[in-house]
Amino acid sequence: MLELLKLLQDGRFHSGEALGATLGISRSAIWKQLQGLEAELGLEVFKVPGRGYRLSAPMTLLDAEQIARGADGVSWPVSVESSVDSTNAEIFRRLDAGARAPFALLAERQTAGRGRRGRVWASPFAENLYCSVVLRVDGGMSQVEALSLTVGLAVAKTLHSIGLKDARLKWPNDVLVNGHKISGILLELAGDPADVCHVVIGIGINVNMVVDTPSVIDQPWTSVRQCLGRLLDRNELAGELLQQLQACLSIHWQRGFAGLRDEWEGLHAWRGRSVALTAGANATLGVVLGVDERGAIRLSVDGVDRSFSGGELSLRLQHDS
After folding, report:
1. Per residue in 91-139, pLDDT tens?
2. Assuming Cys at both sites, which of 9, 44, 102, 279 could form a disulfide with 56, CB separation 3.0 to 4.6 Å?
3. Which parts of the chain sit beneath pLDDT 50?
4. In whole angstroms, what is the distance from residue 168 CA to residue 260 CA?
5. What is the domain range of residue 16?
6. What percent of the chain lies above the pLDDT cut of 90?
7. Residues 289 and 185 in one domain
8. Which residue, among 51, 82, 88, has the nearest Cα to 64 in the 3D structure?
9. pLDDT value of residue 80
10. Are residues 182 and 293 in the same domain?
């Protein structure tokens, strides 16, 4: 089906005879694959007698070679899958099969995309970026301290580079535009936390998805398309993302998050806001002061400067529903 989709991605009409001749299959086989595109991938295909078949809208599929060219100077091998359960899970399977880090994996869709704290990540076909990068970490997991903040900064800088200047950071791992989520980050570790381990960095960015797209998102969200009013070539965005990610990680490995803290603070969405910081059933009310050099969130709680960290903490503005 993917080869057929590549022929149809221009959004123009193609006759069943021409499609069959190009792919070396019968017109009935073309018809079955078109049904598969609609049923399995949720794509709409217009079928007009005498004219042929076309997608309801043009699309640009991800291309590993084009992404690698756009990520000039990035040494990570890049691969693209049409469909996976999740890019993070697929990377762990490849590591188990003997693949060597570092490398990057992108997918056109995820059937079981995961966000932080087990949340579902909406992953419609060929609309957004679902990207994971795996890195080998020597010397223990202390080096990944505040890494999600570093990755968030790379994502925000990527969005700024394409004209989305309102992208801001929400501790610990979300990117927002005008209070609406546009990107999330999921870090997972494998190996010996005291010696050699791997960190898998999962990044989801809402690119061309629109608000009337059926989804399971349970919070206000937006997309690059909604913000800029135009479709974006995801290959260009992916190349820029890998460049920004490598640049930020280079500083992180050399100087820790302290080397990026000021830049992160400059994009902090909730600095000075009254918030409720929750950990399980417990909530701490305070005013956001910023983040410290280890990436912990600093709150003024009853006039006392306190720092909080940990993967189970989440922030919500006090009067949010």
Report:
1. 999 999 999 999 999 999 998 876 655 565 677 888 999 999 999 998 7
2. 44
3. 311, 321
4. 15
5. 2-55
6. 60
7. no
8. 82
9. 96
10. no
Hunting for tokens 């801001």 — which residue is that? 168
* Contacting residues for 145 by C-beta, under 8 A, at least 6 apart: 256, 257, 294, 295
Give the span between the Cα atoms of 117 and 265, in whole angstroms. Answer: 24
The per-residue pLDDT for 215 is: 53
> What pTM was estimated for this model as a whole?
0.89
Would you please indicate which residues are annotated as catalytic (active-site) residues? 116, 181, 316
Task: Say which amino acid occupies 194.
Answer: A
* CA–CA distance, 16 with 46 (Å, rounded to integer): 12
- Of the candidates 35, 55, 75, which is a domain's last residue? 55
Q: What is the CATH number of the domain that holds 279?
A: 2.30.30.100
DSSP conformation class of 280: T
User: Is the separation of the CB atoms in 13 and 49 below 8 Å?
Assistant: no
DSSP labels for 21-63? HHHT--HHHHHHHHHHHHHHH---EEEETTTEEEESS------
Residue 311's pLDDT is what? 43
pLDDT in the model for residue 22: 93
CA dist., res. 40 & res. 289, Å (int): 47
